[in-house]
Amino acid sequence: xxxxxxxxxxxxxxxxxxxxxxxxxxxxxxxxxxxxxxxxxxxxxxxxxxxxxxxxxxxxxxxxxxxxxxxxxxxxxxxxxxxxxxxxxxxxxxxxxxxxxxxxxxxxxxxxxxxxxxxxxxxxxxxxxxxxxxxxxxxxxxxxxxxxxxxxxxxxxxxxxxxxxxxxxxxxxxxxxxxxxxxxxxxxxxxxxxxxxxxxxxxxxxxxxxxxxxxxxxxxxxxxxxxxxxxxxxxxxxxxxxxxxxxxxxxxxxxxxxxxxxxxxxxxxxxxxxxxxxxxxxxxxxxxxxxxxxxxxxxxxxxxxxxxxxxxxxxxxxxxxxxxxxxxxxxxxxxxxxxxxxxxxxxxxxxxxxxxxxxxxxxxxxxxxxxxxxxxxxxxxxxxxxxxxxxxxxxxxxxxxxxxxxxxxxxxxxxxxxxxxxxxxxxxxxxxxxxxxxxxxxxxxxxxxxxxxxxxxxxx
Length: 460
Prior knowledge:
- This protein has helices at about 5-15, 15-25, 60-70, 75-80, 85-105, 110-115, 130-150, 155-160, 175-190, 205-215, 225-230, 245-280, 280-295, 300-310, 320-330, 335-345, 350-355, 360-370, 375-400, 410-415, 415-420, 425-455, and strands at about 35-40, 45, 165, 165-170.
- By secondary structure, the protein is mostly helical.
- Strand 3 and strand 4 (about 165-170) form a beta hairpin.
- The longest helix has about 35 residues, at about 245-280.
- Mean pLDDT is about 80; it is low at about 1-20 and about 25-60.
């Protein structure tokens, strides 16, 4: 009776314990998927209600918002924002980026304004007073410019061209201006009799009288222009009377532009090459290794100088294109090595092996599984290369091979050599301080990113 399989199945069906387990399995089974109906005129299937906007938003928008919300509530984000120093550094970087956008897009400061004279030469910053001898020299230069203009055949046209930054000659008849200038020269001759005004405090009232006459000839601007002029003198002037503050702020735009463009191109190019080399292997891997080994064997600074010098005399001379090319040719090596090593590790993991066994193509596995899991290294390399690009641009501009037309922190440091010898440190101090705070903020930001995305990090 029990020798045939049919008898066994018949006995199992009549057994009450077997019937109980079978009923429980059917009750806990997953419900069947809803039937999909093919929509006429389409090549795929359609589920009723799929793709219908909810609350005026599409499903893709909800998914994107959900992903952003999930990231901000993730362990990595909490670990990063718990670092207050990193949050402060991110605020500093945001401030620099906002200034760069205001200068580049809004035109808060133009290139012509950085080249105009706004005051006397080597004027100290923070509106500090100058020595009496320097104040006398300032009055002499301003009075001499007006006196020469009055001696021309067309005094009105010549006076219109006389300006010291926002300071222009007062709208007075030439005869009245001549009287004011003569009175000022009389006071100047009395002060010139003193051998050293710095040691003659009794002469200070006469010096103030001379400055009052000079202000009548060159009245200060009013309203917004007065405030802007005062801000331009906040950090003093260089030896040509140009505003150090305006030139330093404009250099922020140059630094952010060079750092962002160079880092973005280098990280994308190097990451694609490094990932492809590790994933495909063979000839591709050998070719990429040969490329970055060859470029890394050349001294970095020598290669930068050579590439920047190659564009001298071309249509790109005077632009930032030589700087971009010089940096991108060398900066891609670091991201390429890092991404190659990371890809060699990721492609041996189970989910990549499962995708390969499932029959997915190599490009799909590369784009959908490997690159997203190595994106944090691209972000960290971007911040590191940003710092390197800023410092390299300053070095090239200091050597005269970087930015040539317009201000730059490297140019400001180079032009302050003679000022430092004479004890004037405002220009080199302003350029160094602005570069220092930006580089320091990016260093802190990069370290925080590495701590937040490091899978071996166990601190809470």
